[in-house]
Write a structure and sequence with these properties.
The chain is mainly alpha-helical and 199 residues long. Helices cover 82% and strands 2% of the residues. Strands 1-2 form a two-stranded antiparallel sheet.
Length: 199
Amino acid sequence: MTMDSGRQQTLRGVEAAGFWRGAVNLPNLLTLVRILLIPIFVIVFTSAPERAFLAAVVFALASLTDWLDGYLARRRGEITRLGKLLDPFADKLLVASALILLVDVGRAEAWIAIVIIARELAVTGLRTLAVREGVIIPADAGGKAKMIVQTLAIILLIVDVQVAHADLYLAGTVALWMAMILSVVSGVKYGVWYWKGWG
């Protein structure tokens, strides 16, 4: 083994140690819970139509952990490299799973789901590139609003019932359109910020 290869292995070991340092904490455990809730949500949603409300509850709980793990990580000073990797992955996987299921049962338009999912992947890719190049892409209020509206839309479309005089399917469809528009607008902003920082 040459001296250079030995140094490279040492650097890899140091990087790996840094990646896992402090990884076992409450925020990261909540992120893992969100990932584990995804197959439960899928099973409940696809098992029987009468379990739609239960599926909506599972999705809502999973979505709540998305806010809670970030809040706790910042408040407790437990932001880790593992958390930065897992959190957006879990978020995108949850949303994509829900949208695909809604398209499959005819409660959401396929092209709207594709636009939203594509935006999520694009923004995640930009953030990854930005981190490597030392560019900081600030959180966008439009992105946060998109997430709230998107979560509400998915929950309404999962339940898909008539409550009193309120048509949840119609409300969910309108909310999903709003989420798609916000997705595109905030996605463009993220792209502009990235290119400005890169330039």
